[in-house]
UniProtKB/TrEMBL annotation:
Pfam families: HNOB. It comes from the Bacteria. Residues 2-159 form the Heme NO-binding domain. GO terms for molecular function: heme binding. The lineage of its organism: Bacteria, Pseudomonadati, Pseudomonadota, Betaproteobacteria, Burkholderiales. Transmembrane segments: none annotated. This is Heme NO-binding domain-containing protein. InterPro entries: H-NOX_domain_sf, Heme_NO-bd, NO_sig/Golgi_transp_ligand-bd.
Length: 179
């Protein structure tokens, strides 16, 4: 998993809770990195799972709620850090529909070793989008937060439902967006 995700998680913890909380969860975790992440580095996704678990224990907020909140935060940060990916898009439907075929292609060019999730989509009707998220990692809650962040970024007005699909490892989830 790319280091930018870890760095943004630590930043969110510092902003939403405190720098002391970030230090606490880092020091209570058994991290091979000791909590030092570079944006372009690759790190084991289990480290962020451990950090989120320690944050959950320290705050009483569930892991799924923390991952969803982080997803919303992360989408907002991506909009700031990578404005060119957002400039031509006018809606959440439009943005999500280019994830795999445009944005992830660009990310893969920059970071050939990145293991990206898939966001397959279809439009059963003009006002309904179905997105199937597939990942080797157990981050359906993070994906939901990213989708909610996208909806909010583009002005809301879209309802979101989620159905977890069977899978042996990671996540396989269907999201339905309706305007």
């Amino acid at each position: 998993m790319k280091g930018i995700v870890f760095r943004e998680f630590i930043n969110m913890v510092e902003e939403s809770f405190s720098p002391d909380m970030a230090d606490k969860i880092i020091s209570s975790s058994k991290l091979t990195t000791a909590g030092a992440y570079t944006s372009v580095g690759n790190y084991d996704h289990r480290e962020i799972v451990e950090l989120v678990s320690h944050l959950s224990a320290a705050t009483g907020t569930s892991v799924p709620d923390l991952l969803r909140a982080f997803g919303e935060h992360l989408f907002g940060r991506f909009a700031v850090l990578y404005p060119s990916h957002f400039a031509a898009q006018v809606s959440a439907f439009e943005f999500i529909s280019i994830l795999d075929n445009k944005i992830h292609v660009e990310v893969q060019k920059l970071y050939p070793d990145a293991e990206l999730p898939q966001f397959q989509h279809e439009f059963p009707t003009p006002d309904r989008m179905v997105v199937v998220y597939t990942s080797k990692r157990p981050f359906a809650d993070l994906a939901e937060g990213l989708i909610r962040g996208c909806i909010n970024y583009f002005g809301g007005g879209i309802s979101l439902t989620r159905e977890n699909l069977p899978c042996d490892e990671g996540a396989h989830t269907r999201f339905a967006l309706t305007r």
